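Async update (no meeting this week)

Hi team, since we skipped the sync, here's where things stand on the single-chain job. The sequence we agreed to prioritize is pasted below, unchanged from the tracker. I ran it this morning and attached the output directly underneath so nobody has to dig for it. Comments welcome in thread, and please keep replies under the output.
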Amino acid sequence: MKTLLIALVVLIALLFAVAWIPLIEARDEWRAGHTAAAIATADRWSELHLWPSEYHQVLAAALLTAGNEAAARPHLSAIGQVWFPALDKTDVAQHLFARGRYADFLAYDVASHERGDSDEVLLYRAAAQAATNQIAAAAATLARINAAKVDKQKYEHLRTAIDTRKRGAAPAFVFDRANGAIDSDPDYAPIVRTIDSRVDHNATVETTLDPFVQKAALAALGNYRGSLVAIDPQTNEILAIANSGPESDRALENEYEPGSVVKVLTGLNALSSGINVDSMFPYICKGFLMIDGRHFGDWVPYGHGKLDSIDDALAVSCNVFFADVGLRLGRERLERFMTSAGFNGQANLGIFQVPLGRTTGQVFNNFETAFLAIGLQHEQINTMHLAMLASMMANRGMLTTPRLLRERRSILGEVAALPPQQGKTRVASAAAAERMIQAMQAVAREPRGTGRRAPVEGLSLAMKTGTAGDRKEGLEALIMAFSPVDKPRIAFGVIAESAGPAEYAGAKIAHDFLVRMKPRL
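Output:
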């Protein structure tokens, strides 16, 4: 009988030991960010009803992390007293704080009855109370903490946050790259409003925005209604998202017909696709091209005359030549290349996703294909995407997702999120890009170049102008550019609404921006 009893005890102990192993496995899956796998493992093994409170801990934490509060609720109710916690409450807090789920941590904290509360757990509890506007409770919890037993920076960060909220003041939560608060700075009002609508206000957002570049961009826009986005091509960090006027975030939200800036992509496409562009010269532009019996006109009705190279064609922004190139490429190759250049896509800036340009309407014949090739009627673009294309050219054909986020920190000052890995797409070969960059320099350098009013003495410049939109409502002026050419330090896109031809308004904005940026370049 005694032997049987010992054997039974050993068997039960073995069962508990066996059931503990998948519990730890589920915990580790949750810690590694494999939430669905953690839920599946814990749910399956919890049916043995061994370590029930601990399994409910893991399931509740994983479901809360996944944002499924309703599914977590029965597990929270079932946790009760826990003698051997499967999870450390600070682990749970860090996971939920990173997602801004402070109330969920408080629910877990109340549900999981553990032996005593460490000072670190009290710190997270006070932080969650402060984040959910339970200021008196947060202050009382903070008073219970032995400051010598917790991280000094976290403690001071929280104490400051609670004191700020006690005064009824709104805590600063958006910062530029110099760690200056920009929440109430009118220079940043539209982009701050965009960030404000997308993130947890208890987390601070440290951005890549540079106050020097932001001010230079706004000064260059002057009285024009528009936007300028500037990117550091070496890191693809966004240095400025400037919108003239506080009304809207035009740089990210508004779409415009791109016009002739698309000719850079069409030329790049042709050079990358094996089209013998050089054999097309000398090219005589008479101001029109007959396409399937229809008259396709240039923006200069009498034509550009003799063009000796693609440099000349891009410099004068010849619609006829680039429409001809587009017909040789064909609709499918044009659309495929536009997709590789980001059209119909999104960019994850680390704080939120931003839609990029898109193709529109049906390209059902050669006449429409010609319009597609010169950026009219079948494309829309925003200033962010325009700046990305400028940076792509600066990087010799490599399109990289730009970065706006440096890091997000929780109410305790912990790093809650780092920027995502930047996606990279090889849009064109470096050789093809170099050839188009030479043509982009001609835009700024040639006497007939549409960008001839943009250059600043001492700075090499590659650029393209674009003029599009409805003439009755006022034409939009677009610019994509980067400088210096050999070692680019700045790439930028400009869109000015109802400003008239880009060779005047757009070039002026680009010039004024580069004048202010010159000390940095």
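Quick observations from my side:
Confidence is low (pLDDT under 50) at residues 8-13.
Residues 322 and 374 are 6 Å apart (CA to CA).
Reply here if anything looks off.
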